[in-house]
Backbone:
């Protein structure tokens, strides 16, 4: 008996070798018909024995290609038409409605492709740009859907005979691999000294390894080289040479913020860092993120790479180019986004020539256009799971399937002001953009506009409502107004909590503990130490860190000594002479600060826990002025001895039905201990402990008062692994259920998801 079934598979099933996989399976099972990319995924129309059709369905469900994500399979029976052949049809443009499940993230080079690059007898030996259906670029080269070569930046490379043979051969792993390429017909690599003519790209290449060796030579001799990669341009130098790292820092105008490293393999990573099993899985995952790892005391790497911190950001090679480069070099490479500090990563040749080349010594360039820039992702292993810090290359634009939320209308959420991402919400899926970055510069806002336009086009997305932060001055708020659609303003910390809930498939009620630097509150104060009770209907602020003035507003974030003065003023009164320690850089500074602290001049109230970390760091003499966002807090954590005994406690008082966490007793004890010469590591450790105790104290009270047992830990402060571990431990001991961020950053990179779910469930105001 012959049956005919039309099987539709939805999910990330285009550009991942899905059609070839179905083709081969069907052929082995003796089925006839056709396989093609369709409206919502891959459509398989086959005839044959029912048992063979069953078997095919099972293989699709149980053993699809590794890069595929099958979300749904539907089967329709139809009358057989007596097909005698099996084919893969080219995607038809007619009636094609792109859906955002169809563009996969860029994937690291697979083992087979790596072997080819390393095998002297292979025709791809030393080649930097090949890939197959299991690996290679996707998102970063796709101009439009459907995903065919003509719609990518590979379109201008005409396949040679050998490559088109592979492309057409159902038994080849490059069967219908759109970016297929070789030294004969694909993109090529060129090296040039900075400032020299860049017309080398039109000259033929004789040995594909030559340019690479020139670049490695330059890096070895201490030069800084710009390297065009997969999702953008990087700046690179030898990580073992202090002078080279300093030179790179000058070129990037980044004087202290940690720099990422790329190493040859896990063994080389082990020479630098301690790597537990889970962290190794992250390091070797196909997304190939930068993984934050505890640094070995004897790590052979310049101290200028991550000054003052206990972790290094390390990644493994993810393209043949990077494999060849790190092998040829043989030592760890600094590989950091090519940009001036605070600006978006450069991805076009024009910008590279204009903005990067004048700052460096050499350029390793290639001629495949980067259509959509994508920064490296950053992640760490924390408490038996991943903890995403920057979700970008390798993850974006794979949508998150939400289990507790469904968008009632197509929702665009524009995210926050720093570490910006935006989010498209449709049905039960939330698509987070790659990392866009900080929006303080014109170039940053331009990048947001460009990436947003590309997403709306690529995914054929027409927003019906736009969510943004409550802050009226954020670039995203202004952009939201420009779009002339109904808008929803979402309070910053509400969005943080909602993001954590969404990724865990929880609709509430949940106690959200949102600790971060700054977000505008609904009372016009600057929030950042919040206890919010959140459910589908919204949030209720049930507690917060006691207010102190934020002296000079934003200036306080850059100058931790200001926050130290503010907290000491609150704890000990108006006479700095009576404080156990004096954080003021000069005595005259008091004239400037006093009216801010006493009369609130230019100094809004704040409940920020991020700023409390700053204050403690300054009181301990660890850092008076921060050179990048969060520096003081990160250094305080890296100094903290997590075994330090309990020594301090916050006061928790109920004031007008709200829990107020009073920082004064802790600040006072910290200051006294610092003045008495107690070890900063012990003080910092005890401070972390006191804060975790406070979190558990609030959670206990909220359980008693409201019966809520789930606690979401969110906000940028929870990038602090020491604090997160202590909080989770304490909450578990108290029988409470802790939710920590896994797939979505706890920092402002995750805000857009929270805004989207809040706005997607709420009727918009016009
Ligand atoms: Zn491959
Ligand atoms: Zn070729
Ligand atoms: Fe935040």
Residues:
């Amino acid at each position: 008996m012959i049956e005919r079934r039309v099987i539709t598979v939805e999910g990330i099933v285009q550009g991942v070798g899905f059609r070839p996989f179905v083709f081969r399976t069907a052929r082995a099972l003796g089925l006839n018909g056709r396989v093609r990319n369709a409206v919502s995924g891959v459509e398989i129309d086959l005839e044959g024995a029912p048992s063979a059709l069953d078997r095919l369905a099972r293989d699709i469900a149980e053993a699809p290609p590794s890069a595929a994500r099958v979300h749904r399979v539907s089967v329709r029976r139809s009358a057989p038409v007596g097909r005698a052949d099996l084919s893969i049809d080219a995607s038809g443009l007619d009636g094609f409605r792109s859906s955002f499940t169809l563009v996969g993230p860029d994937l690291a080079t697979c083992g087979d492709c790596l072997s080819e690059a390393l095998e002297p007898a292979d025709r791809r030996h030393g080649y930097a740009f090949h890939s197959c259906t299991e690996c290679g670029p996707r998102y970063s080269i796709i101009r439009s859907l459907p995903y065919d070569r003509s719609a990518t930046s590979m379109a201008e490379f005409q396949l040679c005979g050998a490559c088109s043979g592979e492309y057409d051969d159902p038994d080849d792993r490059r069967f219908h691999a759109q970016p297929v390429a070789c030294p004969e017909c694909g993109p090529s690599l060129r090296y040039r000294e900075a400032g020299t003519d860049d017309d080398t790209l039109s000259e033929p290449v004789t040995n594909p390894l030559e340019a690479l060796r020139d670049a490695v030579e330059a890096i070895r001799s201490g030069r800084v080289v710009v390297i065009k990669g997969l999702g953008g341009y990087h700046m690179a130098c030898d990580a073992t040479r202090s002078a080279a790292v300093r030179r790179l820092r000058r070129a990037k105008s980044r004087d202290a913020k940690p720099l990422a490293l790329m190493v040859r393999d896990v063994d080389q990573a082990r020479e630098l860092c301690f790597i537990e099993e889970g962290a190794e899985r992250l390091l070797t995952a196909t997304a190939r993120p930068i993984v934050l790892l505890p640094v070995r005391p004897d790590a052979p790497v310049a101290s200028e790479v991550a000054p003052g911190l206990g972790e290094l950001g390390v990644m493994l090679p993810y393209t043949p180019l990077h494999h060849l480069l790190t092998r040829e070099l043989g030592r760890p490479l600094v590989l950091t986004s090519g940009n001036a500090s605070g600006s978006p990563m450069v991805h076009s040749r024009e910008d590279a020539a204009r903005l990067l080349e004048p700052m460096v010594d050499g350029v390793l360039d290639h001629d495949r256009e980067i259509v959509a820039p994508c920064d490296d992702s950053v992640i760490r292993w924390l408490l038996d799971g991943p903890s995403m810090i920057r979700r970008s290359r390798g993850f974006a634009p794979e949508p998150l399937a939400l289990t507790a939320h469904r968008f009632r209308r197509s929702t665009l959420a524009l995210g926050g002001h720093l570490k910006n991402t935006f989010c498209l919400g449709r049905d039960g899926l939330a698509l987070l953009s790659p990392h866009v970055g900080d929006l303080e510069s014109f170039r940053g806002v331009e990048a947001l506009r460009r990436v947003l336009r590309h997403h709306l086009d690529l995914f054929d997305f027409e927003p019906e409502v736009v969510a943004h932060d409550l802050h009226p001055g954020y670039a995203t708020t202004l952009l939201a107004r420009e779009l002339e659609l109904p808008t929803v303003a979402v309070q910053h910390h509400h969005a943080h909590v909602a993001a954590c809930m969404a990724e865990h498939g929880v609709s509430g009620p949940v106690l959200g503990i949102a600790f971060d630097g700054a977000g505008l509150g609904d009372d016009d104060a600057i929030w950042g130490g919040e206890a919010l009770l959140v459910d589908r209907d919204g949030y209720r602020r049930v507690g917060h860190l006691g207010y102190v003035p934020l002296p000079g507003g934003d200036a306080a974030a850059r100058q931790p000594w200001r926050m130290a003065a503010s907290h000491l003023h609150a704890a000990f009164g108006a006479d700095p002479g009576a404080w156990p320690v004096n954080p003021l850089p000069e005595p005259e500074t008091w004239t400037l600060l006093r009216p801010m602290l006493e009369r609130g001049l230019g100094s809004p109230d704040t409940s920020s826990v991020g700023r409390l970390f700053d204050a403690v760091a300054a009181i301990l003499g660890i850092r008076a002025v921060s050179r990048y966002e969060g520096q003081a807090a990160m250094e305080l954590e890296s100094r903290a001895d997590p075994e330090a005994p309990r020594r301090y406690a916050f006061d928790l008082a109920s004031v007008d039905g709200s829990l107020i966490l009073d920082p004064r007793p802790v600040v006072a004890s910290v200051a006294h201990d610092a003045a008495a010469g107690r070890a900063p590591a012990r003080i910092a450790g005890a401070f972390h402990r006191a804060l975790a105790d406070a979190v558990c104290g609030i959670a206990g009270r909220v359980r008693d008062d409201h019966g809520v047992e789930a606690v979401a830990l969110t906000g940028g402060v929870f990038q602090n692994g020491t604090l997160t571990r202590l909080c989770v431990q304490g909450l578990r001991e108290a029988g409470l259920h802790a939710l920590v961020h896994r797939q979505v950053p706890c920092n402002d990179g995750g805000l857009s998801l929270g805004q989207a779910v809040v706005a997607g469930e709420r009727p918009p105001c016009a």
The first strand starts at residue 3 and ends at 12. The chain is about 30% helix and 20% strand. The CA atoms of residues 713 and 740 lie 5 Å apart.
